[in-house]
Amino acid sequence: MRNHARVYAMARPAALPVPGDRRVSAFTKPDVFQRWGEDAAGVRPHAVAQGDNVITMFDVIGEDWWTGGGITAKKVSAQLRAIGDRPVEIQINSAGGDMFEGIAIYNVLREHPQDITVKVMGMAASAASIIAMAGDTIEIGAASFIMIHNCWVLAIGNRHDMAETAEWLTPFDQAMVDVYSARTGADAKEVARWMDAETWMSGSTAIERGFADAMLAADQVTTDDAAKSKDREVNELRALELTLVAAGRSRTEARATINKIKGTPGAAHDAGTPGAADPGLTSALAGLLATLKS
């Protein structure tokens, strides 16, 4: 049985590479956003778990065009400066988003001089799972998940372009293998197989495999029904956008198509935006996504 009380503060992996050329972007797959909406929407920390040294990540990784929010390295850097030279708690419920922004956030966190405790409140998938690995201690809810996979990109071109893209992505996948392997103690080849298979790990499995150290106390996690409804609606928009892009449309064209259904996005509290009450929107978008995938 692995000793899950161990602390990793002296063995944080080296920084991950961040591409200088961002013409290729790595995203979370549309079905992951849908699963986030179904399994972990609205999960929030219990009020008593908050503190002035806590950074919450209950959003997409990278800037989010649909809400104006998103978790970025710039924002996390500013929060760390405000916290100062103290231990930090990171609370995560995210399906991921921009993989390379997640890598940048991981690099920012690993440079923090004090201990970092990561708490996976609902989901740490894709880019968010990379961020979670910056924790010296990682706690996870019994019904929470960590998901790891290879970089997932949207690219257009002939077979030579595709081969070039695959070659370009190889070092980033290998760097993630190295981080997961260092954190868990698992063989690198086994970690690579887990990534190839897009592996979802429940709380107990994550602890067994070394991706987490301990279970969160049940009273630290709650579900906000209002946040759950909003999370589901925005996740359908994100998933639909990526599905349309994967079908060959530009992001601008995909957003324009969605706006014909939804309306122009803006501040989250304006009427007609993802944050506004619209009981039929989520089911309509889910139906459209199912039709596109069939």
Automatic annotation (TrEMBL):
Keywords: Cytoplasm, Hydrolase, Protease, Serine protease
Protein name, UniProt field: ATP-dependent Clp protease proteolytic subunit
Single GO term (MF): peptidase activity
InterPro entries, sorted: ClpP, ClpP/crotonase-like_dom_sf, ClpP/TepA
Family: Belongs to the peptidase S14 family.
One of the GO BP terms on file: proteolysis
Pfam family, one: CLP_protease
